[in-house]
Amino acid sequence: MVYLKVIAGKTVNYADRPGKRFYLVNSEEIFMPPYGNFSFESTAWDEIADYTDHLVVTVTREGGLSTMARRVNAMSKGAIKRAVEHQSFQGRKAADVITLSYPSGLKATAIQLVVLERGEKPEIVRKAGVALAKRLSGKSAVILLGALRHSEQLCLGLALRSYKFQNYKSAEQDKRPDYRVMHDKLSNLRSDFETALSIADGVCLTRDLVSMPANILTTETFADHLLSLAEHGLKVEILDEDHLKELGMGALLSVGQGSKSPSKMVMLEWQGAEDAAAPLALAGKGVVFDTGGISMKPAAGMEEMTMDMGGAGVVAGTMLALAKRKAKANVVGLVGLVENMPSGEAMRPGDVVTSLKGDTIEVLNTDAEGRLVLCDVMWYAQDRFKPCAMIDLATLTGAIIVGLGHENAGVFSNDDQFCSTLLGAAGREQEGAWRMPLSPAYDKLLKSPIADLKNIGGRAAGSITAAQFLQRFVKDDLPWAHIDIAGVAKVKTDTAHSGAGATGWGVMTLNRLVQEMFETG
Questions:
Q1: pTM of the predicted model, to two decimals?
Q2: Of 127, 207, 371, 472, which residue is the catalytic one?
């Protein structure tokens, strides 16, 4: 999808492609990852003395110098040794970063000392990459890792925290750092580095999609973005509005009937396993803009509803990461793309709609629309793909923010073991998640006097009744989890891996879940 801008009197054609960012100037295509350009090289000492940006080396908490740090220390006339022997170094923690500006004997602007033990845990090495990105603040660097274990995690942290959404800042498009990563055992680790950046690409795709304005990320352009993922080996299928009507997706279609943007469902299939094993199914809510419909939201803060497609964004980013790293698993991602707008054709409070399953739903609040989208997508996923397990993701309720704030996503599940695996994956990826209850006792809140169920259960337990609604569309004995990401998809303060803005929460968790459930043992 091409966007046009006029910059400095000349027309520039911008093309955004999922997982990559390009722009076209004078018909010349230039690759620009959203986190900077990484290159992986064997250590080249003959270039270091003349390098003019930042040099990065590691030291231990006790002030021990790595092999790389000793060489750079000699070149800088003992600057590193003096720094680690100074009293201000005492008490430094793992993953701290110390800046030595304008070192003698080198042309480098600064030396960055990253405090890491040689055998540090992977999560600490990633944390160091995040801290390094903050300290570099968009500056280029040569990163001398020597034989550091889990070096790919430092690169992942660096990439995740270096991300900036600058698609519509004309003067910033070409300002991306170059990271030259030098390692003594590159031949053994190149695939690990590439895997780390594949995961970063998935996270950044999700962040890009969540950050895009609704006049650009329409249901049609969203579908176009997903279609282009086929270049990474995914099978992509788009069902248009007429096809959805033929199938009987009355719940999903009711949400989008007030908008000029046609509703769609997009399926992304990754067949990475050697056999035809039943896939894991991922379902995402893709409301590209949510006014609330006739039950309109207050004007204050409505501009944030461009992120109401966050669940679909996580599905897209996860599928890209799995495809780029060639995951040995079968996974299918389905997203329902709609826009919830008020108009003369919009769904009204009090309407009754019929879901793909056949259940009738009394719509008491048109702003409780995400569950109407998901229930049809989930039922279709089960009927067509016969998955071994299913996860749906959605920015579903404000109530989950009241309960958990912006620190944790709410997780609901009908299967203890499946939920435990999911929560474990989230914990290992430092993505906050907390299990919430499900119980038949909440079903009475969804009873309707004129239909099979209502789409809301009242103010009390709002997130739980939303999950209880969705559980009605999960077939017996299928392990299932619903993840409400309303509080974590886009935030106003730093997280473990991102600055303020879209976080890409969930891509790393789901990627690890796939690894642990389907690619190990």
A1: 0.93
A2: 371
